[in-house]
Every structure is written in structure tokens, then in C-alpha cells.
Design a protein that fits this description.
Length: 247
């Protein structure tokens, strides 16, 4: 007699309990005390932290000549953006697992890395984390907003509340598929605020998985600024590794 669906589900659960957990990225067995993680310590060590020297505002390596062009078009209220690691092959696989692998739990591993970022928060402002939203269609396909998961895990680590103050007003093409020049136009005016009254006196920290050109953060901050926010910062897990994409 074939096993009933219920008993086979139970045996799968039992198997997961008894089998040692494997690292999502390299397949190595996770240490027993880290068995709830999805990424092993070695893979985390392979993520290269973004470190100075950088543009104090956007956290990108400064150009050899002239002023930084990455943050030149940002609204004044967006004061500072930092990322945890460079988005090279190892970090990219983790982001892919989060976005396309149907593995929302990996957000916790990414948030652990992002939590080491320090932002120059002004004294006297309570900080609120604001995830960059997905359009409704992408949210339906994916089933979750990876930036909201990151924000929740990061909020628990930092002790800041999360408030979903932004919505997408239209679907936008994936930024990675576009030329640098069309990225700004792609996200311009793509965000609006909701329930932002009473929150704009806080320091608002935008949370996103990846910093590609900074255009998305700029557009999201512009919507918050229009609603009255004056102190906006941003944190992402990964940062695109091509420093001269704007040329
Ligand atoms: Zn690994
Ligand atoms: Zn800059």
C-alpha cells in the first residue's frame, strides 16, 4: 500500500530534521550550531565588504577627477547610502536565491551581513526602516517582497521598527536589463507614499537588496521627500561592482 500523503509529508519533515543542513551556495555541511542558517561561514567570508575610501554620501568609490556622479541627481533629503558587500559572483548567488529561488529565509543571512553597516544617524531622530516596494505584479509572482523581508530581519537586529511607507505606482522594467541612461527614466515617478503622515519627522532608512546605479533609491527618496521627509538614508545588502557604469 502506498503511504498516505500525510505520512509521507511527516517522513520528509523527519528527514529534514535528521539530515545535516547544507549550505545553499556551496553544499558544504553547516556546523551543527549554525544549522538554521542557509549560508555557511566560509561563503559569508567570501562576501567582500564595501569599505572606504568612498563618496561620503553614496558610499561608492570616488571618481579620480571631479565630483561623484552616482549621487549627483539624488534629492537633497537622501543623505547617505551604504551597502554591506560587493555584488560579485558569491553574493549574487545569495541574492538570486532570495529573489528567484523561492527561499525567503535567506533574507536572514543577508540581513546579518547588512546589519554590520553603520549609518550616521542624527541624534534625536527615531529611525524607521522603509523597504523599497515591488510592483503588484512582481509581488504576486514572487509571493513576497525580498526587501521587506530584509527590512524585518534588519529591524529586529538594529531595534528599529519597519513601516511600509512606499508603493509602486507602476511596474518598471528590471534595472539590470537597461542601459545606464534609461535607468533614471525607468524609475522616475515610480513611487508614491502611503500612511507617511506622522512618520516624516523620523530618520527614514530605505532598505533594498541591491544597489545597482542608485537610481531606484533616488526615486524612492524623492517620493518620501515630497511627503515631507528631510532625513533619509539607505542600506542595501549588495552593491554592483562596476564602478564606471555611468561614463
Ligand atoms: Zn557555503
Ligand atoms: Zn556619491
Amino acid at each position: 500500500m502506498p503511504p498516505s500523503p500525510r505520512s509521507s509529508a511527516a517522513s520528509v519533515a523527519l528527514e529534514q530534521l535528521l539530515l545535516p543542513a547544507e549550505c545553499l551556495l556551496c553544499g558544504a555541511l553547516l556546523p551543527f550550531d549554525r544549522s538554521r542558517d542557509l549560508v555557511c561561514p566560509l561563503c559569508r567570508q567570501r562576501w567582500r565588504p564595501v569599505v572606504p575610501p568612498w563618496c561620503e554620501r553614496c558610499g561608492h568609490p570616488e571618481p579620480l577627477f571631479g565630483r561623484c556622479r552616482v549621487c549627483a541627481d539624488w534629492p537633497p533629503a537622501l543623505r547617505c547610502a551604504r551597502s554591506a558587500v560587493w555584488l560579485d559572483a558569491a553574493a549574487r548567488r545569495a541574492v538570486h536565491a532570495l529573489k528567484y529561488g523561492g527561499l525567503p529565509r535567506v533574507a536572514d543571512d543577508l540581513a546579518a551581513a547588512a546589519a554590520r553597516v553603520t549609518l550616521p544617524l542624527p541624534d534625536g531622530h527615531a529611525a524607521v526602516l522603509v523597504p523599497v516596494p515591488l510592483g503588484p505584479r512582481r509581488l504576486r509572482t514572487r509571493g513576497y517582497n525580498q526587501s521587506a523581508l530584509l527590512a524585518r530581519s534588519l529591524g529586529a537586529r538594529w531595534g528599529h521598527p519597519v513601516a511600509e511607507l512606499l508603493v509602486r505606482t507602476r511596474e518598471t522594467a528590471a534595472q539590470t536589463a537597461l542601459t545606464p541612461a534609461s535607468r533614471l527614466a525607468n524609475v522616475a515617478g515610480a513611487f508614491a507614499t502611503r500612511n507617511a503622515e506622522g512618520r516624516t519627522g523620523n530618520a527614514l532608512i530605505l532598505v533594498d537588496d541591491v544597489f545597482t546605479t542608485g537610481a531606484t533609491l533616488g526615486a524612492a527618496a524623492r517620493a518620501l521627500e515630497s511627503a515631507g521627509a528631510r532625513c533619509i538614508m539607505a542600506v542595501t545588502f549588495g552593491r554592483a561592482t562596476i564602478p564606471d557604469f555611468i561614463s
